[in-house]
UniProtKB/TrEMBL annotation:
Residue spans crossing the bilayer: 29-47
Family membership: Belongs to the glycosyltransferase 92 family.
Gene Ontology cellular-component terms listed: membrane
A molecular-function term among this protein's GO annotations: glycosyltransferase activity
Superkingdom of source: Eukaryota
Source organism: Caenorhabditis angaria
EC number of this enzyme: 2.4.1.-
Protein name stated in the entry: Glycosyltransferase family 92 protein
Compartments reported by the entry: Membrane
Topology of this chain in the membrane: Single-pass membrane protein
Length: 540
């Protein structure tokens, strides 16, 4: 070390001597002095080694940037229905969740007759822009990517984040459900998280069935055993389809579960939309406690909603989607004493709903009804992606609106009287017939789930909601960011999934595998998925 130092100093000195001969003027002297000073500084620093490897690395780190490439959690893949196309060809749609703040390139590879790949770039559209685009509060969002494939692709194809086939992953779109005929009206429910209210669930399902729906799709993440059993019974009758809606995996530096707007409702709705497209005409997107009814419920008849919606679509031939408001309805939940079962349940409690909010109170338009072939995405508050020049139509409250039966609605502000008795009669009649089809399940004892542990969750959701009216927001509006101090072992089931990842270029695809229904974690939570397979040493 010493020798090296001496050698470098002597080199500098020789250089200086050389310069010396030609130097002149004050500037040169300053230059010379600085150079000597610098040489001494470097020499002494080197000698006493105040700059070590780490200091150098720290200096270097100033220039380092984190570069995260596209990471796409695949939520579904679907074939584009031929009847929806206005151009020739074969198309597929990939539905994925990803960071909404960056671009997500996607290429499709389909094998052609000449044994070469047809490579196309997908048209990628974001379903919504997180918390209104300008902030990064809810930065992850669903996307749909549509690409053209070889006309003979019927089973699978490959996708990649780069145009290189070496980076591509095989993907198999869902086989469309085979229904004997197109359903006139299908309902896509909001996903069930920690759902325990089986009375409301039955009210929702029976109402929609009475009002003209013939299939109800329910995404489930976690629900009480009783609720889930009832859903399964309806599924056996062909009236309900349960779709597993698992949590998303935690990535190396983010947890997408806590970064998606409104509990991922829009993502699940879009997934449902593509699932039902091949066999549905009208699709309704709704919460379980929310349903369309005529303005005067005493005049109501079977199949009324189908009539109302068809009239609205006929009145607006250019509309692809209808946007409704919902009105709070006074709600007194059923009081069944002692042990409960389906046989003891009825709709008498609806007679106690004597008021609904009137149409003078301003409410956001938040319920969407679409013509399945005319839209590609659904947003709750703004317009979704419409196809082929169709538009969104906002339905005035006075023409039609949804009824919102929430537990907390003992009284409603600005009431207008309603008579729900004919509605209760109609549902009771339908229920008597339905009960017969439940056979021995109807007398089975159903536990009322303990909801005490949900109080913390409710308070948390309320607090987040309040925050979202302020300028400073710390959390995205999703249940996964809430913590309950009570740790309860409750009788719930939950969807559990494992994930595998595929490194594509410098990006990633993530796929759920082994989705299954099992006993839930504490507090009715669904387990956090883990990566159990991947093709690279870096996890996403
Ligand atoms: C939905 O759109 C399709 C295609 O434009 C049309 O044939 C059908 O009649 C529409 N359904 C309703 C209820 O308007
Ligand atoms: C009902 O709850 C009790 C205790 O809370 C439990 O032992 C029983 O297994 C539950 N039954 C069902 C069908 O969930
Ligand atoms: C609820 O269902 C799960 C899954 O089927 C089961 O493991 C669990 O024992 C059930 N709980 C009760 C209380 O019956």
């Amino acid at each position: 070390m010493h020798r090296t130092l001496q050698r470098s100093i002597s080199i500098v000195n020789r250089k200086l001597r050389y310069l010396n001969g030609r130097a002149g003027g004050i500037g040169d002297w300053i230059y010379r002095f600085s150079l000597i000073f610098f040489a001494f500084l470097c020499g002494s620093v080197w000698y006493s080694r105040t700059i070590n490897m780490w200091a150098m690395k720290n200096i270097g780190d100033t220039f380092l940037r984190k570069e995260i490439y596209s990471r796409q959690i695949i939520l579904g893949a679907f074939w584009r229905d031929e009847s929806e196309q206005n151009v020739e060809g074969r198309y597929a749609v990939i539905h994925f969740l990803a960071d909404g703040r960056m671009e997500h390139p996607l290429y499709c590879f389909s094998m052609q007759a000449n044994n070469r790949y047809m490579i196309t770039r997908a048209n990628v559209q974001r379903i919504h822009r997180g918390k209104r685009a300008s902030s990064d509060i809810c930065s992850w969002a669903g996307h749909i990517a549509e690409c053209e494939l070889d006309v003979h692709s019927f089973k699978d194809f490959k996708i990649s984040t780069t145009p290189n086939v070496e980076d591509s992953m095989l993907i198999t779109p869902e086989t469309p459900l085979k229904e004997p005929r197109r359903h006139d009206m299908v309902v896509c429910m909001a996903p069930m998280y920690i759902y325990t209210d089986w009375e409301i669930l039955i009210t929702g399902i029976e109402t929609w069935l009475a009002m003209g729906a013939s299939k109800i799709v329910v995404p489930v993440q976690s629900a009480s055993n009783a609720t889930y059993k009832i859903l399964q019974e309806y599924e056996k009758k062909g009236l309900v389809i349960i779709r597993p809606w698992s949590k998303w995996p935690i990535l190396s530096d983010t947890n997408p579960n806590g970064l998606v707007l409104s509990r991922g409702i829009e993502e699940s709705h879009v997934n449902c939309l593509f699932f039902v497209k091949p066999w549905s005409d009208i699709v309704v997107f709704s919460d379980i406690d929310d349903f369309l009814l005529p303005l005067q419920p005493e005049t109501l008849k079977f199949g009324d909603n189908l009539r109302i919606i068809r009239e609205l679509f006929a009145e607006h031939p250019q509309s692809g989607s209808l946007l409704f408001e919902h009105r709070d309805v006074q709600f007194v939940p059923p009081q069944i004493e002692g042990a409960q079962s389906l046989a003891k349940f009825n709709f008498e409690f609806l007679r106690n709903s004597k008021n609904k909010m009137n149409c003078n109170v301003w409410r956001m338009k938040t319920r969407v009804v679409v013509n399945a072939s005319r839209v590609d995405s659904v947003n709750m508050h703004e317009t979704g992606i419409h196809r082929l020049g169709y538009v969104q139509t906002r339905v005035p409250c006075r023409q039609a609106h949804f009824y919102h039966l929430r537990h907390s609605h003992n009284t409603v502000p600005s009431p207008t009287p309603i008579n729900m008795s004919p509605f209760a009669d109609l549902l009771n009649k339908q229920w008597t017939e339905r009960l017969e089809t439940f056979t021995d399940f109807k007398t089975q004892f159903l536990n009322k789930t303990n909801t005490e542990y949900l109080e913390d969750f409710d308070r948390c959701m309320g607090a987040i909601n309040d925050e979202h009216w302020s300028m400073k927001v710390s959390r995205c509006l999703t249940p996964h960011v809430c913590f309950s101090r009570l740790r309860r072992q409750v009788d719930c089931v939950a969807v559990a999934s494992d994930y595998e990842f595929y490194r594509s270029g410098r990006g990633y695809f993530m796929n759920p595998i082994n989705s299954r229904i099992q006993r839930s974690e504490t507090n009715c939570e669904s387990p956090t998925p883990e990566f159990i397979a991947g093709n690279h040493y870096f996890s996403p």
